[in-house]
Amino acid sequence: MSEHIYIHVPFCIKKCRYCDFYSKIDLALIPDYVAALVREIRLRSPSTVPQSRGSAATVYFGGGTPSVLGSRHLGTILHALDKSFGLSGQTEITLEANPGTLDDTHLKEFPEMGINRLSLGVQSFDPAQLCLLGRIHSADDAVRAVEKVRNAGIENISLDLIYGLPGQTGEHLIRELDCALDLSCTHLSCYMLTLEPGTALHAMYKRGKFFPMAQRDQVDLFRKVAGYFKSRGWDHYEISNFAKDRALRSLHNSAYWRMVPYHGFGPAAHSYIIKSGTHGKGVYERSWNEPDLDGYIQALASGHLPPSDGEALTLEQRQMEYIMVGLRTSTGLDIRAAQDLWENRFLTVFQNLMEQLKGKNFARYQDAGKRFVLTLDGWMHLDSIISAFVEKI
Ligand code: SF4
Asked: Which structural domain, as residue segments, surrounds residue 348?
């Protein structure tokens, strides 16, 4: 079976103002973290030998800022993954990187180690926006980082951009997108800025020092982004994700959106696994390591699994997740799979709602009626559409 593996790297040089991901800025703990991570991978390794299972389909180093690890530590982690899960030239191995932390010497070693996709957290090409977001890099750093990655022989380059900052106009956003495409990246993740409780930006908002963009203006910008990529023939395959062509979609994230099981390692990492039975029919469990780097290192140093929690998913939870992730993607809901998940009651429960959404041009049927997919107008009302589905579950 092909596995999907997520590695959480909980280190950053500095905390960005908008970010609520679990990370620490004490890089001195990196060697202990790597040793603990390798132990966790071994302890949770599947019992069958990798050769008999084939190789992992994807590995995704997220964070945090995985690029702070450098090639030696990344090589150690990949070696452990290879021994426990099997890696091959076909495995999509993505590394998230901050443009301010890419070192040429390390970068040149990445392709040999199997890293074949870089996801660069550019966020903006505008110095004022980078400053407001609290990023450590400049726009020039971002441009140079893309050049360095390409010179190292990695062609599959994704950029993250954030839009919807106060005062941003459509013209400004188009200039940002032009800058990204001028760099010949193959994939873009464009996220609307959200205010997460506990972040510095949220504290500024509470003190009246930050004024978020009005929702109707955000919606206008979303339409601009979608139109921009449509006119260039890019594949808008998830509400915030765009690939130059279909073959360049993120295989790892696409697996999440199809609710394919995955293993997560590292503090704060989540896993989604089949406890018993087979895909589609089994007992599913979601589990997560506690966001506690010290506890993680201590537990694994003494040979134990790290502090964690988890839950077996009820049928209703799986149904809700199926709706929530499926409607975000351009492949939408697979009606036959949904009928299976609802024990043949999906159409009975939802057909009226689906027809109403189709009538408002919020959705359409695709592939000869086999799929139900939201339109661009539907994506603009995603939250209320999901709520309408969830009410009926
Ligand atoms: S956005 Fe990325 S670099 Fe910034 S604090 Fe969050 S994880 Fe770290």
From this structure: 316-392
Q: Is 19 in the pocket of ligand 1 (CB under 6 A)?
A: yes
Would residue 310 count as lying in a domain? no
User: 262 near 272, Cβ under 8 Å?
Assistant: yes
Report pLDDT for 54: 81
64 within ligand 1 shell (Cβ under 6 A): yes
Same domain (yes/no): 330, 252: no
101 — pLDDT class (breaks 50, 70, 90)? confident
Say how many Å lie between the CA of residue 154 and the centre of ligand 1: 23
Question: Does residue 180 share a domain with residue 75?
Answer: yes
In the reported structure, the alpha carbon of residue 342 is separated from the centroid of ligand 1 by a whole-number distance in angstroms of 39
Q: How far is the CA of 14 from the centre of ligand 1 (A)?
A: 8
Question: Residue 104's domain is classified under what CATH number?
Answer: 3.20.20.70
β-pair type (241-243, 235-238): antiparallel
The C-alpha atoms of residue 99 and residue 67 are separated, in whole angstroms, by 9
CB atoms within 10 A of CB 198: 8
pTM attached to this predicted model: 0.95
- Matching residue, tokens 């998940």: 341
